[in-house]
Amino acid sequence: MNYYITAVEYNSDGTNISYVSLHRINSERRVERGVRTSRANVIQLINQGHNVRTAMWNYTSSVWSGGATVIVYNYGFSSYIKTVSDSTTRDNLGNLLPGSHIA
Fold it and tell me: Is 92 in contact with 83 (CB distance < 8 Å)?
C-alpha cells in the first residue's frame, strides 16, 4: 500500500512531528482524503513495509505530486520519521503544510 503525507503538526515545543495528514493511494492510483494520524501510526505502516512519501499539490496540473520517501529514524529509545536526503528541500517533511491544514 502507498501513502502520501501532505501536512505535519509538531509537538508543543516545535521539535518533533506529532501528527500528519496521511492519504492512502487506492488501487486506481487516486489519492484519498487525508486523515490526521500519529507519528507512531506512520512508523508502524513503514515498518510493515508500506511506502510513505511526502506530496505537494501541483497547482498547474491540479494533482498531488509525490515527493521524498519517508523513513523511520531511531535515536536512543525513540523513533522518528524523516525524509531521505536528496538534492531538493521543498519536499521535506518540514516544508509541508503546517498542522493547521490537517483535516
Answer: yes
Report which of 23, 17, 26 is spatially closest to residue 5, judged by C-alpha positions. 23
The number of distinct structural domains making up the chain is 1
Contact by Cβ (8 Å): 64, 55: yes
Residue 39 placed within a domain: yes
Give a yes or no: residue 73 inside a domain.
Answer: yes
Which tens digits make up the pLDDT trace of 60-103?
A: 999 899 999 999 999 999 999 999 877 677 768 877 878 766 65
Q: If you search the block for the grid coordinates 501532505, which residue do you land on?
A: 6
End-to-end C-alpha distance for the chain, whole angstroms: 21
Give a yes or no: residue 103 inside a domain.
Answer: no
pLDDT tens, 1-40? 899 999 999 999 988 999 999 999 998 989 999 999 999 9
